[in-house]
Write a structure and sequence with these properties.
- The protein is an alpha/beta fold and 255 residues long.
- Helix content is 31%, strand content 11%.
- The chain is built from five helices and seven strands.
- Strands 1-4-5-6-7 form a five-stranded parallel sheet, sandwiched between helices. A two-stranded parallel ribbon has the order 2-3.
C-alpha cells in the first residue's frame, strides 16, 4: 500500500499468519467463502492481503511468529495487537499519536458461527457476537484511535478490507449469517465514519478471491494480482471516493 515520503502506512491485522487451506469453489472471495449456497467451505481467520514491503507499522496477534514481517528488517516496526481488545487498540493509538500515517488499512477479520442457522442462534450467538466485535466494532475503534495521525498526513487515506458477502444487494445465496452481518455492519460504520470525518478519505475494499493458503489453489487471483489492484485503487482514491465500496479492480460493489 502506498505511503508518501513524509508519512508511513499502518497495516492492522495478522499480516503473516498461516491459514488452513479451504476446499475449492468458483465464486469465493479472498476469505475462502464460496458464494454458492449449495457449497459452503469452512472459513478461517484470514491472512492480510497487503504489500508488506510498504507497511511501516504492521500488527500481529503473535509477532514472534510473523517471520515475513521480521524479514523486512529495520524498515518496519511490528506491533503486538489483538483488535478484539479495544483497550489495546486505544493504547496502540496513543503510542503512535505523534506519528504521521498516510494510509491506514484495517484488515483483521474472523469468521465465527459459520454453520449457524436461524434455528441454532442460541448456540451460535456468542461466536456471532465475537465476529461482530472483531469485524465491525474493532475497525471503527481503530479508525477513531488513528484519525488524527492520518488526518495530518499528505494522503489522508483510511481503508477497511471488507467482503462482497457484506453486500445486501449482491446477496443471492443466503446463509453465513454471522459473517455477512459483520461485514454489512463494517460497511455501515465505515461509511458513517467517512461522512463524520470529511478531513480523511475512508473507503471500503473487497480484495477478491485470492490464491493463498486460505483462498486455496482454485482461487481466481494470484496474490500479486489482488495486491496490484488494491494498490492501484488506494493510490487513486480521491475525496469523492470516501464512503464508497469498491472491488479490488476499482469497480463499485452495491451496498
Amino acid at each position: 500500500m502506498a505511503a508518501s515520503a513524509s508519512g508511513r502506512s499502518l497495516v492492522d491485522g495478522a499480516a503473516a499468519e498461516a491459514a488452513e487451506q479451504n476446499a475449492k469453489g468458483d465464486r469465493r472471495d479472498a476469505h475462502g467463502f464460496d458464494h454458492r449456497r449449495e457449497s459452503r467451505p469452512r472459513p478461517r481467520i484470514r491472512a492480510a492481503i497487503c504489500d508488506l514491503r510498504l507497511a511501516r507499522h504492521p500488527t500481529s496477534r503473535a509477532p514472534e511468529k510473523a517471520d515475513a514481517l521480521h524479514a523486512l528488517g529495520q524498515r518496519v516496526s511490528v506491533h503486538r495487537l489483538d483488535v478484539a481488545d479495544l483497550a489495546a487498540v486505544a493504547a496502540f493509538g496513543r503510542a503512535l499519536a505523534a506519528a504521521t500515517i498516510d494510509v491506514l488499512i484495517a484488515n483483521a477479520g474472523i469468521a465465527g458461527a459459520r454453520d449457524m442457522t436461524a434455528e441454532t442462534v442460541p448456540a451460535g450467538a456468542e461466536a456471532w457476537e465475537r465476529t461482530l466485535r472483531v469485524n465491525a466494532i474493532a475497525p471503527l475503534a481503530l479508525a477513531g484511535a488513528f484519525h488524527a495521525p492520518v488526518a495530518r498526513s499528505e494522503q489522508r487515506k483510511m481503508v477497511a478490507i471488507t467482503s462482497r458477502l457484506g453486500s445486501m444487494g449482491a446477496n443471492s445465496d443466503g446463509g453465513l449469517y454471522a459473517y455477512r452481518s459483520s461485514k454489512a455492519a463494517l460497511n455501515a460504520v465505515w461509511r458513517s465514519f467517512a461522512l463524520d470525518h470529511p478531513d480523511v478519505i475512508a473507503a471500503l475494499l473487497h480484495p477478491g478471491w485470492v490464491r493463498t493458503d486460505m483462498g486455496g489453489a482454485g482461487a481466481l487471483l494470484d496474490p500479486e494480482q489482488s495486491v496490484a489492484g488494491l494498490r492501484r485503487v488506494i493510490a487513486g482514491l480521491a475525496k469523492a471516493d470516501s464512503g464508497r465500496f469498491y472491488n479490488y479492480d476499482g469497480s463499485p460493489i452495491p451496498w
